């Protein structure tokens, strides 16, 4: 049985793979494939954010009483990442490879710095502070598996 | 006590000046090293010439440690959840002491001047104790964890041990302390390159390589035990060197070499599995660095069977300039544009993307100039030709000039965007 950190970290890597597929397709100059891979990435990312904002963060906030702490910051970063996803979508619509590569590189670093904080600090805190962490991990894994199916 | 999560926030991000002041000064020490080769190419005759010692410390303290300390102001909050108290002011103070100390040390070594070496020891001693103490205060408020979080701590300890050994050496030279010079030198090298720089490279690689190059993770056992084993092996080796247990120290050295090789080859395998099919210039700089470290290790091993002094100089060039400098340049081209972007975005300003802030052509040219300079320098050492050494020196001046030009370019774009867009989203973070 894996913990919250394990489940959510695994899902970050899953999103990374879709991200790489879209980047590779764009560098190959194949816009149809870029768009398909990008939309798979955007959907997976939104699913991940949705689970955090709708389930994981509220449980953490309930367990710790910290509502304006780390989770508030992570929500704010989700907003920045969503804005960045829109920039990439706009670049695909214009078929502007330079803009796509610049926005995509920016999103990657932003997203990985965000992931680092979650994987190294927030998720381990969730695992220790949420009282039914094992059950939460199980539900998250199930929901992510359903979304990926 | 500050909860660990508090360091996650925008407010905990150190001011952009904290890391940037280090990143913008470091290239000048690289240029000074190039100038030294240009002016007195005979410094490479032996690693013990005053010039060679000055050159080594311009590269290691002036460039490597300068960038590493700057990067730690950024890494500690993100990786360990530890915020350095009063990061802006501490960064300024440590920076001034480090710059002054490095200039004094390089001058003191070059002129073999006891008074200047004493000043250098005092300034560097203060710089590193203030930095390490602030880092420890930040880290003491959060749990130690495993993997990268623990390994960053081990690297800081390694850096501290290397600094203490370096200070004792400087004072031995300056004040004639009765210490075993040769043994201390060996330990200083081991702790500086592996216990400090090597461990920090590994601690960041566990996280940064899989995330930014989209590769599988390093093997779990490696993340758990590698850095700990290195620190353990270095400690036992140090004791055996000081007690002059020759056979045991040779066995432990073998273990240290094997551990280093294990990390380097694993890194090559891991980055070889990247999902990004078109590697960028930063990736290629990083890969060049790892191969160069491997070549340096081979040269070090060769010194066991050959007395040729050239081998040790080759090892130094390959490890410090070909290895660490490549890896650090690869990192700077990722981190500096991102920091500019991050700070603009946090102020609610629409930021140019990272490739607009730092066009990929700039990074590609850095890779080209660095590779050419490295090849010329290696040939200069192999052939013992002064003119080739001068040429390498000139190439190195151009290389670090180009690095400064690009890093400064990012800062200018950052300032211009800031002045042109007065909007603020998070007033507290501005």
From TrEMBL, chain A:
Organism: Azoarcus taiwanensis
Cellular component terms (Gene Ontology): plasma membrane
Domain Hemerythrin-like residue range list: 5-126
Protein name (record): Hemerythrin domain-containing protein
Pfam families the UniProt entry points to: Hemerythrin
Source organism, top-level taxon: Bacteria
TrEMBL record, chain B:
Keyword Protease on entry: no
Sorted UniProt keywords: Membrane, Transmembrane, Transmembrane helix
Parts of the chain that traverse the membrane: 20-39, 59-83, 90-110, 116-140, 152-171, 191-209, 221-241, 247-272, 284-305, 311-333, 367-385, 391-414
Name of the protein in its database record: Uncharacterized protein
Originating species: Azoarcus taiwanensis
